Amino acid sequence: MFGLGFQRLARRQTGGAPWTPLDLGAKLDFWLVATDGAVARSGSDVTTWTSLGGGGGNATAVAMKAPTYNATGWSDGSPTVDFSNAGTAVELASLSSTGDDHWAASVLNVQAGDSAGETFYSPVGAIIFGCNRVGSPAILDGAWKTAAEAATTGEQSALWLVDSAGPTATIYRDGSALTGLTYDGSGGGSAVNPTIGARSTDQSGTYLQARVKVALGGQGVLTAAEIASLNTYLGSFL
Question: What pLDDT does residue 170 have?
Fold first, then answer.
């Protein structure tokens, strides 16, 4: 089961099979949805979060830094994986960067606190600090500049895009593009273990504080149609 949001999306689609992130093909590295069957755990501690597709494999908890499974964490009573700014993280399999174009997306409930923020994946080094990083305007391996973005808490969808050809950086919140972004075009890196929930696997003292419903990421430039479909998919959980 993909959850109530996916079911709502499927009902809205006509004329063929509903769009899913698998339609992104090789541009998809991982697709995580918080469901009882997808999240293995020891007690409430997450051990493995099974990916529904993509080349990055499953997400596993960083030793002694496991986030927690919350069976009723979302406003509709469905599950979430809860990350704490006290220090939690999961990581994916090692991925070789295919270039400097990449994207990440999430449906999450950002919580208050010094380290509240949207902290997700990058194939070129560590993770993405998105537009909600309280107290720090921006970072993606020194490549993102998002000083114009204010902190926003609560349930929301978010999509980050880096297109090195511009170079351009775009953030969508709840399906609408935000402004005030620049990108300095740093090059692709070597193979890394992408991290969700912390700046890198050594954490670096910077963590995500949020209840996460969905997390996706990948490499390559998304077309306008793919961006629209992805934003519709994310919005179906809200």
Answer: 78
